[in-house]
Amino acid sequence: MAKYDYDLFVIGAGSGGVRASRLAAMAGARVAVAEEHRVGGTCVIRGCVPKKFMVYASEFSQQVKAARGFGWTVEAPTFDWPAFIESKDLEIARLSGIYVTNLQKAGAELLHGRATLVDAHTVAVGDQTYTADKILIATGGRPTVPTDLPGIEHAITSEEAFHLEKLPESILIVGGGYIAVEFAGIFAGLGSKVTLQYRGPNILRGFDDDVRVHLSSEMEKRGIRIALGCSHESIERAEDGRLISRLNNGMRFTTEQVMFATGREPHVKGLGLENAGVLLNDRGAIQVDEYSRTNVANIWAVGDVTDRINLTPVAIREGAAFAETEFKNNPTSFDHDHVATAVFSQPPIGTVGMGEAEARKRFGQIDVYRTTFRPMKVSFYGGEERTLMKLLVRADNQQVVGVHVVGPDAPEIIQMAAIAVKMGVTKPQWDSTCAVHPTAAEELVTMREKYMPAELGAVG
Predict the structure, then answer these.
(1) Same domain, residue pair 196 and 321
(2) Binding site annotation covers 180?
(3) CA–CA gap between residue 294 and residue 137 (Å, rounded)
(4) Whole-prediction pTM value?
(5) Is 417 annotated as a binding residue?
(6) Is pLDDT of 76 > 90?
(7) Pair (137, 274) in one structural domain
(8) Which of 28, 103, 180, 459 is the most exposed place for a label (fewest CB within 10 A)?
């Protein structure tokens, strides 16, 4: 008779949890997965997938403008928000169903309900308890809002933005990270009047400074107002139903919606971690080693709940590495270096490796190759949008340590560049690659002149 009900109990059926569950079950393990919401997690249900659908929808307004420049007669377009939301919800339901089917095909048992740790080998789901040899926590993250802000109850987060009954005529988006700039582009593209408010000196903290400046400029070209270096003091609802936001610099905005995109935190509350002795780090995330093991020998954690790199593909790779290690006798850890990322802003960003400031701090002398240009399509129809491309190269050994692209198709371009950077490509090897013409991407392999920022040039 088995000592435990399951070989593996997974808490959370998002990207990382589902991948680990499937692989473990396919390796012959008895697996249970508990999910309190819909299967698919943040990415599929309330994150990257529905957001990307919204990005696609919002880009058509720019495409209509381009079409006229190419000789097409296009009547004034209108956007049907309810029809889009209905189609989006149907597709999300289809994708969630695929996740469920894949779990079932692998032989994993799906349990619906909130799971709580009773001890290191016992999990409660509703009024039932289950025992497991190994437990994997993959509960993801959740939006954070300033709970002490007067009137915060009037604001929404990205999760509510996917289900608004109507497209707001105007919206104030609070934050300067991925989610904030992406939704600013989405709502602006769909026709809303958008203001982006961020407390810092510029958007996208942690990204290369040229990328930050370039995107900010391009967003303003698209009619997005950006208010920096300020924060909310209060939100109140006016008699006409609109929201009045008062900022600490005296500015005041009146909009139909206020959306907070001020960050996410690991979803650990109510998991019963203390019952099993699982430790958190100073960021409130579950503390793990390179193999995703917690301080408790039979408990692991993957994905956003560990706050390493909060990206869906990373959670998937962490989940796969866990299953490979624990159920296939093949110790595997995911390498978190040189992970490419995309921001689906408008224009989008693709980046891999270090930003310039980080590279200079780590390696000292850095060769910078940088260009901005209007893509031929944009030039043809008379647009003002510019693309930025930037390479960062170690001066001592010519290794490419950073690639940054802001412009159409940047996320598609960066995926291929990431392979080269991960393999340690050098600038001479990069330069030996023949360009594909005519493309925007060819600029990456034809940059030969080093770029010298004005402040460094003055010093030299």
Answers:
(1) no
(2) yes
(3) 10
(4) 0.94
(5) no
(6) no
(7) yes
(8) 459
Give yes or no for a contact between 333 and 290, defined as CB atoms under 8 angstroms apart.
yes
Which candidate in 121, 163, 338, 437 is catalytic? 437
Do 187 and 278 lie in one domain? The reply is no
CA–CA dist 234, 245 (Å, integer): 6
Q: Are 180 and 196 in contact (CB under 8 A)?
A: yes
Would you state the structure tokens that stand for residue 113, as one six-digit string? 């309900």
Which residues span the domain enclosing 315? 6-143+265-328
178 is in an annotated binding site: yes
Residue at 341: amino acid letter: T
Do 133 and 273 belong together in one domain? yes
Q: Is 177 annotated as a binding residue?
A: yes
d(C-alpha 178, C-alpha 214), whole Å = 15
Angstrom CA distances, 237 to 162, 205, 234, 243, 288, stand at 22, 31, 10, 5, 44
Is residue 156 in some structural domain? yes
How many Cα atoms are found within 13 Å in the side-chain-facing hemisphere of 449? 4
Same domain, residue pair 249 and 102: no
Concerning whether 214 is annotated as a catalytic residue, the answer is no
Q: Identify the burial level of 86 via C-beta atoms within 10 angstroms of its C-beta, where 0-12 means exposed, 13-18 middle and 19 or more buried.
A: exposed
| Domains held by the chain: number | 3
Helix residue ranges per DSSP H, 241-366:
273-276, 312-327, 356-363
CB–CB of 383/374 below 8 Å?
yes
Look at residue 267 and tell me whether its pLDDT is greater than 60: yes
Query: Are 285 and 272 found together in one domain?
Result: yes
Could you say which of 211, 237, 261 is where a domain stops?
261
Residue 36 assigned as binding residue: no
* CA distances in angstroms from 293 to 103, 283, 298, listed in the order given: 23, 17, 8
Residue 181 known to bind ligand:
yes
Rounded Cα distance between 34 and 265, Å, is 20
Does 182 show up as a binding residue in the annotation? Answer: yes
Question: Is position 451 within any domain?
Answer: no
Based on the fold, state whether residues 253 and 384 are members of the same structural domain: no
Length of the chain: 460
Distance, in Å, from the CA atom of 11 to the CA atom of 116, rounded to the nearest integer, reads: 8
Average pLDDT over the chain reads 95
User: Is there a binding annotation on residue 156?
Assistant: no
Q: 28-60: per-residue pLDDT in tens? A: 999 999 999 999 999 989 999 999 999 999 999
